[in-house]
Write a structure and sequence with these properties.
Four Helix Bundle (Hemerythrin (Met), subunit A), Doc, mainly alpha, single chain, Death-on-curing protein, two-stranded antiparallel sheet, Fido, kinase activity
Length: 137
Amino acid sequence: MTDQVDYLDLDDVLACARAALGRPPQVRDWGLIASALARPRASALGNEAYPDVVTKAAALLSSLITNRALVDGNKRTALVATRLFLGLNGVPVVASDDEKFDLVLDIAEGRLRSAAEVADRLRPLTRSARQRPVAVP
């Protein structure tokens, strides 16, 4: 990937959790948050594991949901963090609440397992794919 990607850090995810929950989050496992944050940056033999921003976002979303690093609010935090990550990288999410709910639930229930599968579902829910104005939550 030649473009610079803006990645989230721990403070970003904690702020997303606070926004999603309306209170400070209770962290069950700090290492699992770190693991989820590292996944979009992964590479092997000099090649990025996730070659584009949407696939990186899918890896982040999937990891934050399935790692269950927080006592409560993992899915809500994952969705807010993914929207932030995509927005920072110029790819706003314009999905309806139902589309977001279905995507998150499919990940949480194991119907979408790989980052590629998640990215295939996430990509059409972005402004770059739909070319329509951003919906304000």
